Amino acid sequence: MSAPIKLGGLPTPRASAPWVVQKGAPPCTLQRQRSRSSCVRRASRLIFASAAPAESHTLDAQVAVVLGTQWGDEGKGKLVDILAQQYDIVARAQGGANAGHTIYDSEGKKYALHLVPSGILSKSAQCVVGNGVVVHLPTLFEEIETLEEQGVSTERLIISERAHLLFDLHKEIDGLREEELAGKKIGTTKRGIGPAYASKAYRNGIRVGDLRDMETFEVKLRNLALDGQQRFEGFQYDVEADVEQYKEIAKRVLPLVGDTVELINDAWDEGKRILVEGANATMLDLDFGTYPFVTSSNPSIGGVASGLGLAPTKFQAIIGVAKAYTTRVGAGPYPTEVFGDLAEDLRRIGVEYGTTTGRPRRVGWLDIPALRYATRINGLTHINLTKLDVLSELETIKLGVGYKVDGKSITSVPSEIATLEKVEMEYEDIPGWQTDISKVRRWDDLPKNAKDYIARIQELIGVKIEWIGVGPGRDAIVIQP
């Protein structure tokens, strides 16, 4: 049995707010191994304090795709924000407002995005909401208003006329459906994402382009509401109020609506550079994830082709984003999950609370079989390993390297939930580096043990880790040469 994991020094929240130690608080249950003066220095540091700039790196790919490889919340938005400075178009292909991307600009200002692509912070990139996204327009306009108040122009935003609309009735159905499941709840965000995709599959959904003909739109919305009323006892939705609301919404949104399939393919023909921003992640994929504890779309590479109308032969870089550990929101099997004081400390240090829901995330060690599985499905060409700094105080880091079921090794992620719930994780113990790396910007300046951890992950998955995140700021990234 491995030695217990210990954190040296006091846990330091990975957030811009000052770290405050409350008087009378119980002593940290994890061993303190560094001097008090060192802890004080760490407590008083500012995440966005001046640091040497990250090494420059231009991605040589006309079309690059950024995908989540775990259960979401890996930090995709930050990499998209960094790469967007090099691209002409940044596009979302699937998901809805259940996606949450938190970005910090170079001055430490925080932006929380849900439907608007993370490239909106680049002053030159056109941002596309593709046909595979489900769009709740009131939420989108709230997000636009917040961004405008923060000084971010959203004039470069275009929404696919083929994207499906998500209504408040879908949110109502989402909640009612979860109640029906009782003790077997999926743990959705209750943002109506699943029911909106269900309407699309039932072929009674309503698309953004339908707002051009309000007479037909009204008929479709009333029929959609009737379907929900007939199916769910207790269904409450004022369809007439929504019909009137959408008459006003249509006037506002139609100037932003266009044929994004033509736009993106014309841009490719012209040699423009396109960056695709994934939402959610592979282990939540409707086909490849831990079904039924998954999202309602395909956050894997297939969802990019179907969600934008861009042929896969045009994808030149497929970048997988993975945390240096793992997190998960909602129900479902989670082989490397940790509990107790260690989980609480990692959650606090990593600020592991949902951007969209605020829910505390479950926390676990890095799961190599799951990451290798995501690598193969998506054909990853690069990896961005994020939040390495969160592990900086650990004396020993556990790396989940293999699955065993009933004493037998299995080589991939099992499709059956019952089997996955029985998985025993095989771990390797990796020595920690126990030093602050949040100001490191060059590969040569990373501690040897941090490099060794990265090298072992690369060895096990067979893909180079190109970018290493060491903090939430835009500049807090290390590029491996």
UniProtKB/TrEMBL annotation:
Localization per Swiss-Prot or TrEMBL: Plastid, Chloroplast
Enzyme Commission no: 6.3.4.4
Superkingdom of source: Eukaryota
Co-factor(s): Mg(2+)
Pathway field: Purine metabolism; AMP biosynthesis via de novo pathway; AMP from IMP: step 1/2
InterPro entries per UniProt: Adenylosuccin_syn_GTP-bd, Adenylosuccin_syn_Lys_AS, Adenylosuccinate_synth_dom1, Adenylosuccinate_synth_dom2, Adenylosuccinate_synth_dom3, Adenylosuccinate_synthetase, P-loop_NTPase
List of catalytic residues: 73, 101, 200
Listed Pfam families: Adenylsucc_synt
Record: residues binding Mg(2+): 73, 100
Residues that hold GTP according to the record: 72-78, 100-102, 361, 387-389, 469-471
PROSITE patterns recorded: ADENYLOSUCCIN_SYN_1, ADENYLOSUCCIN_SYN_2
CDD domains found in the cross-reference section: AdSS (cd03108)
Binding of IMP, residues: 73-76, 98-101, 189, 203, 280, 295, 359
Alphabetic keyword roster: Chloroplast, GTP-binding, Ligase, Magnesium, Metal-binding, Nucleotide-binding, Plastid, Purine biosynthesis
Sites where the protein binds substrate: 355-361
Record note on cofactor: Binds 1 Mg(2+) ion per subunit.
Catalytic activity: IMP + L-aspartate + GTP = N(6)-(1,2-dicarboxyethyl)-AMP + GDP + phosphate + 2 H(+)
Classification via PANTHER family: ADENYLOSUCCINATE SYNTHETASE
Family to which the UniProt record says this protein belongs: Belongs to the adenylosuccinate synthetase family.
Biological function: Plays an important role in the de novo pathway of purine nucleotide biosynthesis. Plays an important role in the de novo pathway and in the salvage pathway of purine nucleotide biosynthesis. Catalyzes the first commited step in the biosynthesis of AMP from IMP.
Assembly and oligomerization: Homodimer.
UniProt name for this protein: Adenylosuccinate synthetase, chloroplastic
